Structures are given as C-alpha cells and as structure tokens.
Automatic annotation (TrEMBL):
Pfam families hit by this protein: Alpha-L-AF_C, ASD1_dom
Domain Alpha-L-arabinofuranosidase C-terminal: start-end pairs: 297-487
The protein's name: non-reducing end alpha-L-arabinofuranosidase
Pathway participation: Glycan metabolism
Domain of life, source organism: Bacteria
Record keywords, A-Z: Carbohydrate metabolism, Glycosidase, Hydrolase
Gene3D superfamilies: Glycosidases (3.20.20.80), Golgi alpha-mannosidase II (2.60.40.1180)
GO terms (BP aspect): L-arabinose metabolic process; polysaccharide catabolic process
Keyword flag Hydrolase: yes
C-alpha cells in the first residue's frame, strides 16, 4: 500500500533558464577550508600545483563548479587584500578574529585564489570589505585585478607576476553587514552600499555584477529597506539560510541523530521555499522585471563540530541527511530560477556542509559532493513545469511534502528529473507522463543507504556513493518507478 504520486511534465512549458551559478560554492579563510583543505604550499609533500592540492583540483573540476565565492563570510569584512600579495616572506600575518583567533600568514591571497579558479575552470565571486575596510581599498582591489592599461594598481599587479588583468564577473559589497560585517542597520547599510558600489568600477571589458548584502533568513525588513533605498544600484541581493536540527533529541550532532532530528533538519531545509517566495515578493515590488537576482550565497547544514575539533573551525561530518538537504535546496533553486541567479553552498572543504573532507594527504568525497555531481546536468538547462499533487510526510504533529522534484531539458534534448524522497522509512510509487516528448530510453542514478546517518570516512571512503538505478520503466512513453525512502534519484531521458 504505497503512496502514489501521478505527475505530468510539460515540455512545452519552459519556465526559464537555470543559471549554472545555482551550483556555486563558497570557500572562506575558516578552520581547515583554505589552509590544508585547498592550499598546502608549494613545498608540501602532498601533490600540488603551485601550492594547491591536486586531489582537490581534480574533484572540483569533475563537478563543473561554475562559481566560487571568497574570501568570506565574516572573514571578508576584516580582510585587507594588500596583505595577501607579493613575496610570501614579506606578507604580514593577520589574526582571524572570527574563526578561532589564530594568526594566518596570508599565503593564500588574490593571486592564489584566482589561480585556483583558473585551475578548476570556475568564475570568481569576490567579497569586498565594507565592515573594516575603506572605499579606497575596495576600489584599488578592483583596479588591481581588472585594470588593463598602465595604472598604479595594475603596475603593482604586474610587479607581482601577473601581466594580464583577470576577469572578475561577481563582486560582493560586504557580507552579513547586519552582524559580523559591522552590525549595521538596513538604512545605514543601504547608504554604505550605494557609496562603496559607486567606486567598484568596470575597467576595460570587465563588467561587474554587484551583489549587496541581503537578509538573514526571515529578516524581511532588511530586504524591504535595502531594496527600497538601494535596489537600483545593485545587480544581486544575497540571502543566507542554514539548516540546523533545532529541538532535537540528541546534541546537534552531524552523525548521531534520530528520525525526529532528520525530520526537523529537512523541515529547516524546506523553509528555504518560504524564504525565497517571501523575499522574492518584496523584491517584485521594487524590481518587477526581476533584473536583480536573489543570490543565496550561504546555505547548507550547520551542526556541532566533530568531537575533539576546534569549536570555531566548524568541521562536521556529512551524511545521507546532508545529501537530502542538498537535493531539496537545489530542486528549490531550480524551481525558482526566475529570481535565483546564484547559490553557494557553505563550504567547499572541511567546513560546515563540505563536499570534500581532508586529513593530511587523504581526501574523501561526501554524500553532498555526489548530489552536486548528479544535479550538474541542470546547469544552464531550461526548467520544465512538473505538475503533481504531493504526499505528506507526517512526523508526530508536523508535516512536510514527501517529494522534492525539479526537471529540465538541455540543449541536446535530454530531459532530466531529480527526485528526493524525504521520508525516513517509506517508499513512494511514482507515475509520470511527459507531454510532447518521445523518450528513447531512461537512465538512472540513485543515492541512498540503509542507515540515515551513512557517511564516508577516511577508512571507508565509499560507504555511500551513487549507484545505477534500473528501477524506472518506460511504457508507452509513461515512466513508472518506486522511489526508496531517504533517497535522491536522477533520471535522464533521451528524446528520440
Ligand atoms: O559560513 C560560516 C559563516 O556563516 C560565514 O562566515 C558567515 O557569513 C555566516 O554567518
């Protein structure tokens, strides 16, 4: 007696193009993300390219990361870029006050970050310092990176070994300026944004997409005020929302949890839908043509750090539950791609909902990495309308939709369907009609496990990984399948 869902995909209803940047990432100078996780230095015994780990380069390239945000986070509003250029022995150290108070040596700076982007084929999204920096400092950073001809900053860049300017498509004017980025009120930030953004210039052919600091979670007042006072001056407005397992039965552990914690974490993930809808509605008042993108540049799970690790290094394990959170969010971003123009999961390596974990020379891929690998087919494809009435996932007195889904069609006429069954122990039967599309065949990839807390470790790096799924059947062009509990499925149908 399985619950059954009948769905219809309408291939003639192409809603919008899914911006590839929805599949973006975020790497901050926090804990072991940059140092150890990405940067080991040229003299390290760990195989590297100019100081950047080769295993991490390969893993990041494989999932087509479109955009990478750096250097923070809270770190961005205390980062002074000039300390991170020039000969290593001459770079001054700095105290990372937000993340553990340790002194970092500034060896990973502008040149190293932009080299990383080149090595993995990704576009940089740089976040500038509004909290403790100056307008001049921000202006000079942009000049340093993008000025083509002769100028004081371009000449300094050349002196440090880079002749050609870099292409910098995305620039954030501050981070969380309502908190770690200066504890500002929205009216004050809106004015600061207008002032700083004025001096963030386009040099030569470089066109900057300027992103303003947006709200935390359900702070609708922030969105209202900043859109009203500064909406015309920005290209994007950022928003942050983390999924935590609040009100849980155990400490907020990444790996030791009960079905109740599973449910509350997924509920937090699904809350993203309400946030997108409500913030978008406010943006619609000031920007009805949807010129300004909603940029979810921090999202993911936030649990207790692993026992014995530094409390401010935010190092957590990553289980099947994280994979579901990733699948739910990515489906939501796809489905709202008329307004969501970028999203950046926090964070790439060794921090929060990491896609990669490292320990010395060892590296493992987390279940979240596999979700990004599966969902990458949606990058740049056209979103399709999926019509269905959802089943309820009930837990005690609460309920959630049981199925998360999005579908797209790409330039090669391949139709992709990504489905997540949120229920911790019940399957769903799915039957799906596809209008105006003759499928020649179907291929499936499934990510699930028998334990909700299944995760990869350095001893067992492949405890959870995607497998081929043969359970989708095509009959007269109609698709049917049973989606196991706690699972994520990618189906690809080739048009005949
Ligand atoms: O991602 C960790 C931190 O979370 C970021 O530095 C900050 O922007 C947010 O509060």
């Amino acid at each position: 007696n399985l619950d059954k869902i009948n769905m219809v995909i309408q291939t003639d209803q192409r809603k919008a193009k899914i911006n590839k940047n929805i599949y973006g990432h975020f790497a901050e100078h926090l804990g072991r993300c940059i140092y150890e996780g990405i940067w080991v230095g040229k003299d390290s015994p760990i195989p590297n390219t100019e100081g950047i780990r080769n295993d991490v380069i390969q893993a990041l390239k494989a999932i087509n990361i479109p955009v990478l945000r750096w250097p923070g986070g809270c770190f961005a509003d205390e980062y002074h870029w000039k300390d991170g250029i020039g000969p290593y022995e001459e770079r001054p150290g700095m105290v990372n006050t937000h993340w553990g108070g340790y002194v970092e040596n500034n060896h990973f700076g502008t040149h190293e970050f932009l080299m990383l982007c080149e090595l993995i084929g990704t576009e940089p999204y740089i976040c500038g310092n509004v909290g403790s920096g100056t307008v001049l400092e921000m202006q000079q950073w942009v000049e340093y990176m993008t000025y083509d001809g002769k100028s004081p900053m371009a000449d300094l860049r050349r002196k440090h070994g880079r002749d050609e300017p870099w292409k910098i498509p995305y620039f954030g004017v501050g981070n969380e300026n309502w908190s770690c980025g200066g504890n500002m009120r929205p009216e004050y930030y809106a004015n600061e944004f207008r002032k700083y953004a004025t001096y963030v210039k386009n040099y030569g052919e470089n066109q900057l997409y300027k992103i303003a600091c947006g709200p935390s979670d359900a702070d609708y007042t922030w969105t209202e005020v900043v859109m009203k006072l500064a909406g015309k001056h920005m290209d994007g407005l950022s928003m942050h929302h983390y999924s935590m397992s609040e009100g849980n039965t155990l400490p907020n552990s990444a790996t030791q949890f009960e079905p109740a914690d599973w449910f509350t974490t997924l509920k937090q993930a699904w809350f993203m839908e309400e946030l997108i809808r409500k913030h978008s509605a406010i943006m619609d008042e000031y920007d009805p043509d949807k010129r300004v993108g909603l940029i979810v540049d921090e999202w993911g799970t936030w649990f207790d750090v692993e026992p014995g690790t530094h409390p401010r290094f935010l190092f957590q394990q990553n289980t099947l539950r994280d994979a579901l959170v990733a699948g739910i969010n990515l489906n939501l971003f796809n489905n709202h791609c008329d307004r969501i123009q970028m999203a950046n999961i926090a964070q790439t390596v060794n921090v929060l909902q990491a896609i990669i974990l490292t320990e010395g020379e060892k590296m493992i891929l987390t279940p979240t990495y596999h979700v990004f690998d599966m969902f990458k087919v949606h990058q740049g494809a056209e979103l399709l309308l999926v019509d269905f009435s959802n089943q309820e996932y009930r837990f005690e007195d609460e309920k959630l939709p049981q199925l998360s889904v999005s579908s797209s069609i790409d330039a090669e006429n391949k139709l992709h369907l990504t489905l997540c069954n949120l229920h911790h122990n019940e399957s769903i039967e799915i039957s799906c009609e596809i209008e105006d599309f003759q499928p020649a065949g179907v291929m499936g990839t499934l990510l699930t496990a028998s334990a909700l807390n299944a995760h990869n470790t350095f001893e067992q790096p492949e405890a959870i990984k995607p497998v081929d799924f043969q359970g989708a059947v095509l009959n007269d062009g109609k698709l049917s399948l049973i989606l196991p509990p706690a699972s994520i499925l990618l189906l690809t149908l080739e048009g005949s």
